[in-house]
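Marked as duplicate of an earlier ticket. Keeping the data here for the record.
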Amino acid sequence: MDLKELAKHIRKLDFCMLSTCAGDGRITARPMSNNGDVDYDGDSWFFSYADTGKIAAIKVDPAVSLTFTAPPHLLGKPGIFIAIDGKAIIIDDRSQFEAHWVKGLERWFPQGTETPELVLLKISAKSIHYWDGEEQGTVELSGDQRKDAI
């Protein structure tokens, strides 16, 4: 499977677990939604408040992982499992907020892109590991692969 094929699966999966390394060495995970902003090219985008534990952890260590899973297929084949190793960047730029904002986010961020303490996380994948039934593998990402994925 290549990045283009994996992107087809990731587009269908809204929720994932975002894992960060806490300052004391513990790994912490929490559910995140990509809010339907998935034209997957190796980058994932998530909104957050700036004063959260995940943001504090990313400031110390930007290495993160995302794990996605899809339910089993109707014919009994297990769903796909995807683990992404990447680097997080914290973005505090209203123009980027507008570019990634989708309807419905007001539920968590009532003032829209003007919500105080709003930040955007960009998770850039370094490698993607997948398990799809009997098939498994790893995709290592380069700049060229990202351009070809979408």
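See parent ticket for discussion. The longest helix spans residues 3-11.
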